[in-house]
Amino acid sequence: MPSTTAPGSFLDVSVSRSALAPLAKASAVALAVVLTAAAAQVSVPLPFTPVPLVLTPLAVLMTSAILGARFGAVAQAAYLLAGIAGLPVFAPSAQLPPGPLRLLGPTGGYLMAYPLAAFVTGYLAERGWDRRYWTSLAAMLCGLVVIFAGGVSWLTLTVTHSVDAALTAGLRWFIVLDVMKVVAGAMLLPQAWKLLGPSRSRQR
After folding, report:
1. How is the chain split into domains, by residue range?
2. What is the CATH code for 10-201?
3. Distant-in-sequence, close-in-space partners of 203: CB < 8 Å, separation ≥ 6
4. Are strands 53-54 and 43-44 parallel, antiparallel or unpaired?
5. Global confidence as pTM
6. CA dist., res. 151 & res. 170, Å (int)
7. Span 5-15, pLDDT tens digits
8. How much is the pLDDT for 179?
9. Measured in whole angstroms, how far is the alpha carbon of residue 73 from the centre of its chain?
């Protein structure tokens, strides 16, 4: 069962004995931003919804499970700030608005939910949920729920003005594939802990 105390994130434990821990953590946050931006470039537009199919949610959940709650949320906030500043980090699209306007477009709810989803998944990972497959999967699914809740709520308010229509446009076409991606991604986290060895993976 997951620990009721906070054993720490994978990042915390893996660099805890290093004199360069602050630099390693800053570099890990920067890498998480880069990976999220790279995942966003894998974008497949769909003709029946304004929301494209992207790999970004998986990147958000995986990196936040590794970084933990605070650093995971910081990484996703930095990702959003990079997009607001006009850097090409959001999914390429001829239909969706560029730069800061992307947050006001139909996919804005998903994007704005990323920091909260990262915090939730990272919080659970810090408590040991990422050290076994089923709890790792549960932690990532909790984050995925946050992302979809933000996306569907925003679509309801700004585009469809109907919960059912928003669920069709923003959830039903994506939920199976996103869950499948999370099912696969959750396998990697317990394996990463095994590489640290049993003594460090039990660190409190």
Report:
1. 10-201
2. 1.10.1760.20
3. 7, 8, 13, 16
4. antiparallel
5. 0.91
6. 7
7. 557 899 988 88
8. 96
9. 9
pLDDT in tens, 29-58: 999 999 999 999 999 988 888 899 999 999
pLDDT in tens, 51-74: 999 999 999 999 999 999 999 999
Task: Count CB neighbours of 2 within 10 A.
Answer: 18
* Alpha-carbon gap, residue 62 to 143, rounded angstroms: 10
Longest dimension (CA), the chain: 54
